[in-house]
Input
Amino acid sequence: MNRDRRTKLSKYLSCHLRHKPEEIGLQLEPGGWVSVAHLLQACAQHGFAISRADLEEVVTTNDKQRFSFNPTGDKIRANQGHTVEIDLRLEPQVPPEVLYHGTGARSVEAILQTGLLKMTRHHVHLSYDIITAKKVGMRHGKPVVLVVDTAAMHQAGFTFYRSENGVWLTDHVPPQYIHVLENS
Output
């Protein structure tokens, strides 16, 4: 499968596994799972046929690991980023000392005043490394990397989760725990 087709499939899956499952007749199970057979059938019925091989390629080659199969391979889910109400059944985790958040330069002032908010998502997304955060920030214009003092947040009682693809999640990050990474 070529890169354009893979990207198109990834966007289609993101749309329907994260945001609009009902548009193609999907109902997400607890944990965000949906039967692979049901997903493939629903896609075909809505004019977007996907083979099992194509689905496996998108899951295994996606650089952000947006999707995963369950251990038996008969169910799939988006790992995070949902706007529909879903409980991913993640267990609280102790975060590393710091995590990072990438954003666009035009958003920095507001973030430093209000903190990081989940907006339409269920969680604020944080990266383990600067490179990933910078890539995320590039989607929003000139990238700026924010450093989040997650050790202090955790000590203050904030809860963190780690999704299957390594993205760290929390409900919000107050401004006192954020500073701008110099030269980001």
Q: What stands out?
A: The mean pLDDT is 93. The radius of gyration is 17 Å.
